[in-house]
């Protein structure tokens, strides 16, 4: 709401930006009665670890630098009509590494957990696994193929099935006939 109020106060120069901002879902902020600047409102909404998982889209470098100082806030900006997601800030990367290190359990602790489970009888027994029952399948697909015709001992097909070839007889014109035609044409 604070961003929309700020865009209204800036007048006709940012009327298009105001129309675009109105299309999106408006989130309620804590500044109902006394609106603050848009950047201050956005920063107040992402405090305390960004619980609503907001993305911040801005062209303002001051706001972008302040957002990069907070861990877990993705930053969007526009370059030549293309929306670009900025790489994670060093603060975000450090936060993720710290979180991963806290989640890892050392190997000796894992072994002691397994031993304690065995003492209490909570460990899964490997011998009690169920085996899958084999089910009857269909016929062998190779047995369903059509049988091939047998060939003779020579490795050739039987004579009855052999295709007959026709010989083509050429009608050759004798050289003398050609010469007589040429003489008639000359006369």
TrEMBL record:
Residue ranges constituting the UTP23 sensor motif region domain according to the UniProt record? 130-149
Q: Return the InterPro entries for the record.
A: Fcf1/UTP23, PIN-like_dom_sf, UTP23_sensor
Recorded superkingdom: Eukaryota
Assigned GO CC terms: small-subunit processome
Q: Where is the composition biased (Basic residues)?
A: 162-172
Residue segments, region Disordered: 115-187
UniProt keyword list: Nucleus, Ribosome biogenesis, rRNA processing
Task: Specify residue ranges for compositional bias: Basic and acidic residues.
Answer: 116-128
Q: Name one Pfam family in it.
A: UTP23_sensor
What family is it from?
Belongs to the UTP23/FCF1 family. UTP23 subfamily.
Q: Which PANTHER family match?
A: RRNA-PROCESSING PROTEIN UTP23 HOMOLOG
Q: What does this protein do?
A: Involved in rRNA-processing and ribosome biogenesis.
Q: Which protein, by its recorded name, is this?
A: UTP23 protein
């Amino acid at each position: 709401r604070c961003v929309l109020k700020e865009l209204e106060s800036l007048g006709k120069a940012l009327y298009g930006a105001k129309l675009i901002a109105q299309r999106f879902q408006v989130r309620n902020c804590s500044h109902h009665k006394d609106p603050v600047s848009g950047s201050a409102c956005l920063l107040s909404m992402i405090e305390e670890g960004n619980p609503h998982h907001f993305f911040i889209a801005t062209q303002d470098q001051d706001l972008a630098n302040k957002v990069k100082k907070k861990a877990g806030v993705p930053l969007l900006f526009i370059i030549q009509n293309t929306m670009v997601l900025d790489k994670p800030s060093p603060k975000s990367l450090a936060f993720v590494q710290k979180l991963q290190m806290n989640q890892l359990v050392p190997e000796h602790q894992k072994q002691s957990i397994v031993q304690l489970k065995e003492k209490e009888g909570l460990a899964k027994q490997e011998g009690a696994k169920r085996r899958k029952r084999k089910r009857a399948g269909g016929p062998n697909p190779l047995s369903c193929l059509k049988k091939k015709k047998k060939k003779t001992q020579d490795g050739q097909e039987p004579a009855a099935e052999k295709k007959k070839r026709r010989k083509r007889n050429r009608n050759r014109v004798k050289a003398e006939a050609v010469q007589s035609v040429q003489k008639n044409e000359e006369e």
